[in-house]
């Protein structure tokens, strides 16, 4: 659009220049002017030519001053050509880079497709593993139900075993009596031998029944649940921030000691047997978390399901930070009660007070036993002594539980009960 306008302007200016030159030449010719001794006609032609040259030069100069495109067309053509060549080279280079990028994109696309396929296969395998785990859990529940039925049958079989044993003793006595009669009675020896054979057959049958019952008794005994779900197998404290290898070694040592303790508890002769199973992923995750912290960590090893005698113990790891909860001689809980002098009230008061102490310690941060919910224990002699002390008071008394030593999150808490009269 700009080029058409420029052409139009040049055409108009050319016409104007021709018109002006003609008029000027005509005036010079009419006035008979002469320059350089030339004839007026020639002078008119020279004036016309010079005027056209001056007007054309002025027009080009004005357009050059006003238009950047004109200046570029007149003086910057070579530079434009050089830039065009450079830009063509740049376009070629960028085209090659684009082709390389497309090739890399295709490679990455293929890698992504392979990774997506592998992820899909992994997810499918995980789903199959979950289905197998659900199936195993269902079979375990069925086995537990069968165990309950077997234990019931065991009780009935034991009663039958006692009756069969009595029958065996009675038959053995009868057999002995018949044997004695056979020695003295020669005339009835055939009949007695026949009876003896029958009795022996009955005896063998009863012995077989007794053996089967003993085997059933042993099977039922071996199916006893030895560890319940959530039962704490062992608790230990591992120092954090010691590096992955040292932390894994300390955690492995704790698991090894727990395994040895379980072997002793179950009276297993083979002390090298590994009956405590913990998932490798759980172990590595626990070791990494402990290595990342800079404080002591409580490691609680507990059973993740009911364990029947003869099965491996499937264990889980629980981690808790170990903080100082109570200092020595710090009051855990106190309350004021009124004693009426009734004998049973003292025991009820002390037991209720100990429950409140347990609740206060758990609320403060002491780890309770997951099954019993307790954070400590008290010997029977200490308990009866405190009950007797409380029973000797009448009216209002203040009971206070004070720690005997510094107590951390891992527990257990050891307390001494203070008793004093209040107005």
Short summary:
With 423 residues, the protein is α+β, with helices and mostly antiparallel strands.
How would you explain this protein's 3D organization?
By secondary structure, this protein is α+β, with helices and mostly antiparallel strands. It is 65% helix and 15% strand. It contains 9 helices and 11 strands. Strands 2-4-6-3 form a 4-stranded mixed β-sheet. Helix 8 packs across helix 9. The N and C termini lie far apart (111 Å). About 2% of the residues have low confidence.
Q: Which outline best applies?
A: elongated
Rg, rounded, reads 55 Å
Q: Residue share in helices?
A: 55-70%
The H/E string reads HHHHHEEHEHEEEEEHHEEE
Low-confidence stretches at least 5 residues in length (pLDDT < 50)? Answer: 212-221
Total of DSSP H or I helical runs spanning 4+ residues: 9
Describe the structure using short key phrases.
about 425 residues, alpha+beta, 4-stranded mixed sheet, 3-stranded antiparallel sheet, 9 helices, about 65% helix, about 15% strand, elongated
Topology:
Layout: H1 2-30, H2 40-66, H3 68-75, H4 77-184, H5 189-222, E1 225-227, E2 232-239, H6 244-265, E3 276-277, H7 280-292, E4 296-303, E5 307-308, E6 313-321, E7 324-326, E8 331-339, H8 343-364, H9 380-391, E9 395-403, E10 407-408, E11 415-421
Parallel strand pairs: 3-6
Antiparallel strand pairs: 1-5, 2-4, 4-6, 7-10, 8-9, 9-11
